[in-house]
Every structure is written in C-alpha cells, then in structure tokens.
Amino acid sequence: MLYELEPAATIIKTLGGLKAVSEIAGVSRHSVMRWRYPISVRGTGGTIPHQHHRKLLVAAKERDIELSPLDFFPEELRR
C-alpha cells in the first residue's frame, strides 16, 4: 500500500527521494518511508521528526533547493 501523507511526501520528493533523504538524515530508507505513513500503520502521519529538520534544510540550501522551516508544517498551520 502506498501512502503519501504531507508534508513529508513533498519534502522527500523535493530533496530527491527516499535514498537521498535517508543519506542526509542518517537513517534507513524504511524510516524515511514511514514519515509518509499514517500513525495507524506505525508511521508519523506525514510529519518529519524535528531532529532531522536542520540537516534537511542545510542539505536543501547546499543543493540550491527551495525549502523553508514552514514547509515542515501541514498547510493548515502555515499562517
């Protein structure tokens, strides 16, 4: 079953996919995949654990990819 919960799905795609993000964050691809899964199936509900935010933001800047701290929040909370 494929899950693509936000905002994790978009951030993962933006940064180049599961492999790239797992290398940046220093975690397994399976862990990154779970960020897109609902909590009901042992995922994070679309959230990226906060301890990875800084690494992902730095990597995005180094790669000239537009990513901001607000991107880590669900759309309804970005105001």
Structural features, described:
This protein has one domain (8-70). The chain is 39% helix and 0% strand. It has helices at residues 8-14, 18-25, 29-34, 53-62. The mean pLDDT is 95.
**Can you summarize the main beta sheet?**
none
Nearest-integer average pLDDT: 95
Radius of gyration: 12 Å
Distance between the termini: 32 Å
Please mark out the parts with pLDDT under 50 across 5 or more consecutive residues, or reply none. none
- Number of separate strands: 0
Categorize the overall geometry. Answer: globular
Count of DSSP H/I helices: 4
Question: How many domain units?
Answer: 1
Q: What share of residues are in beta strands?
A: under 5%
Q: Helicity range of the residues? A: 25-40%
Question: Could you give the order of the helices and strands?
Answer: HHHH
Q: Classify the secondary structure makeup into a structural class.
A: mainly alpha
Helix/strand layout:
Blueprint: H1 8-14, H2 18-25, H3 29-34, H4 53-62
Highlighted features:
mainly alpha; globular; 79 residues; 0% strand
Can you give me a brief rundown of this structure?
The chain is mainly alpha-helical.
